[in-house]
Structure formats: structure tokens, C-alpha cells
# Entry
Amino acid sequence: MPSAAESHPPLRVALLGCGVVGTQVARLLTEQADDLASRVGAPLELVGIAVRDASAPRDAAVDRSLLTEDAAGLVERADIVVEVMGGTEPARSLLLRAIEAGAAVVTANKALLAEDGPTLYKAADAAGVDIYFEAAVAGAIPIVRPVRESLAGDRVRRVLGIVNGTTNYVLDQMATTGRGLDEAVREAQDLGYAEADPTADVEGYDAAAKAAILASLAFHTRVSLDDVAREGILAVTADDVAWAAQTGHVIKLLAIAERRDGGATGEAGVSVRVHPALVPTSHPLANVRGSFNAVFVEAESAGELMFYGRGAGGAPTASAVLGDVVSAARHRVLGGKGPQESTYAELPILPPSAAVTRYQVRLDVEDRPGVLAQVAHALAEHGVSIEAVRQPTARGAADVAEPGVAELLITTHAAPESALSATVAAVAELEPVRTITSVLRVEGA
# Structure
């Protein structure tokens, strides 16, 4: 008697893109064909791979007979379309065409989802087909499905994550080897963690796109890339990293999405931002090393949850893609449909000034009595209180201390971003203050 997989006609899978991730998806579909068929209840047949240049050299794992430059024709003869080509166009047009033709869609395209995800969600809902995107955030780490489905009965308060492996590797190297930013970026490029043009990583664009996706899912509110306050790591120096270690912190590029209920500030809504921050060494995110990613979720009933693993790479990302393919394929075989976009909350998106955080400010001041009192007064005038003040017994070997100048490091208590930034500006204008050397936020405390 034939198995269910043998009796069901094959499901046709079209693959858009054959780069590092696409190659691994094609390999896994071939090598694990029997297992995938058993899990789905039907064979998965890779019917074509759309590429820009079918004559270009390819990995031996890719069946060249499947290559085609006719992406539009390919998506119209598929049951499931997998998009790993990246960019907004022609990916958006091809996915909309696939949905219109009745195909389920699996995408790893974070930029497209952050920029115009609602268009795809609306089209998929109207057509009655699935759209899955687990691989768009944090590679192999299962974070989209837990936030979208497992925590659907809970109230997520905060999502705090390291979602860009390149910047985490760079900052980790700066902390462990003493390298400067430029040198650490070059090493990341040599190892294949960073592109030849690392702008999307080091300036925070990649992390911001992922933050927008996570915030949309967590708070049932549409959050676009333009809604995310973004600051990259280009201003982080070796001195910042050394000072972080002295104060019991490490520096991480964090994606932070919070639901705020107003309170003293009177502003309720969603705050989403990406920036480098000091994380206490006691926090789980502080121990995320190298190119790994981790996402820390705080929910009212579930409490604190952390998801950790490889956030990039061909095989890890392909693993997440195949998980989505299996889910979409099962629905084709057994009936049913995956989760739809949830935007019922329609919470307002708060401006960056409404975020509540802490600052650690490093400054050079005249070394004379009364200076700290002036600085403390400036903070108090803006409603910001001091948690701690530190002064090194000696400056670093690389620094040449100017006679009569002292270095101070001030850590504040939590306050609105608007008050903190105004305070720093006021302190910089004080007569005994020579320069503000560094300003970093403190998160996770």
C-alpha cells in the first residue's frame, strides 16, 4: 500500500535566487527529499531556479538544468515560491505575481518585508495563500514563529536583540583583542562575515529592518523601516570598549522594540530603535560572542525568554527557509492556512525622543573643585539624576593627559531620551567642560 507521500502528487517548488542561501536550499531539497516528503505528506519537486545569468559558474550541488532567467514564467507554474534573491525589486513584483497565481510564498527578504510587507500580507490574505518569513530575522534562530504564534496569547512588553552577526563579531573582536573598528571590520570581511561594502551592517540598516519586523509581530502594529530610530557602530572607539570593560559592560549593537503604556511621560505606543549600547556582563546578551545572534523577549505571562544561535550563513538560513517550506507544503496537502498579519492594536509609533534609557557619558573637565557640582546641577535641571561617577586614577597609555584636565565618567538613572540628550548638550556648554568624549546608552540593566 503506497504511503501518503507516494499517493499525493508532487508539490512544485520554485526558487528565486541561487547565491549562498539559494544554493543551500537547493541542496537540502535534493539531499533530504525523502525525509521532507514524509514530513509533508507529498514529494517536493524543485521545478526551477531563477537567476540573472544562467551561464555563470555554480556550486556542484546545483542542477544546472533547473536554471532559468525567466523568473516570471517560473513563479506561475509553482505551488510554493521561495525567494532568497534579496532587494526590493524585482523580488516584490515576482512574489506578488506568485501570490496572484495561487502559490504560497516563503521569503528571507528582510528589507522587502520592512519596507513593504503589508502589501504582500494583504495580497496573500486576499488570495488565501500562505506567506512565511522565518529566515528574514536572525537566520536559523526560530524567533518569528514564537513571537507570531507561540506568544499570541500573551502580551509582549519588550524585544531586545543582537540581530546582526557582522557587527557583533566586530564589537567582540574589539573587546577581546583591542583592535580598532576599521581593523575589526576588515577581518570580518576577510572571513566572509561582512560584505565588501559593510554599510548595511555597520550603520545599522540590516538590524533596523529586522527590528521593524519583530516589532510589527510583537505589538500587532505595522512598523516600517522608516519608523525605526537607527544609529550604527561607526562612532564606537577602542577607548569606549575599554571603558565598558572597566564598568562591567560590553558594547553590543541592539535592536530594541518596546511597548510603552504612558506612565509619567504620558506617551503610550511603540518605541523601536537600533543603536550601540552598554550591556551589563551579567545579562545573557553580554555573552553572545562572534557572529552569533540572540533575541531576548519579555512577556507579561511567559516572563523572560532568550533565543540564541547562528544568525547568518547559507546552511543556517536555509534551515529556516526549509522549515517554512514544510509548513506551507503541509497546508497544501492537509488544508488550512498559516497565520495572517495581525495589526488590530494599531498602536502609535513613538518618536525617538520618547524612548526611556540610561546614558553613560565620558567627558574631560578642568581639574578643580566644584566642577562635578556644576555638572550635577545641569543634569538636575533637566530631570536627570546621577547613578554613579567614576574617575580613573591614571589615563590610558595611549592618552596624553593635559595638565589640569580630569576625565569623568557619569552614568545616569533612566530618563526619556529627550531629557538625556538635552542634558548632554547643556553639560557640553559648561565653562569647565573641555569636551564630551563619548555618549553611550545603557540597556538590559
Summary: The chain has a mean pLDDT of 92. DSSP finds 15 helices and 17 strands in the chain. Residues 117 and 224 are 8 Å apart (CA to CA). The chain has three domains: 9-138+313-332, 142-308, 354-440.
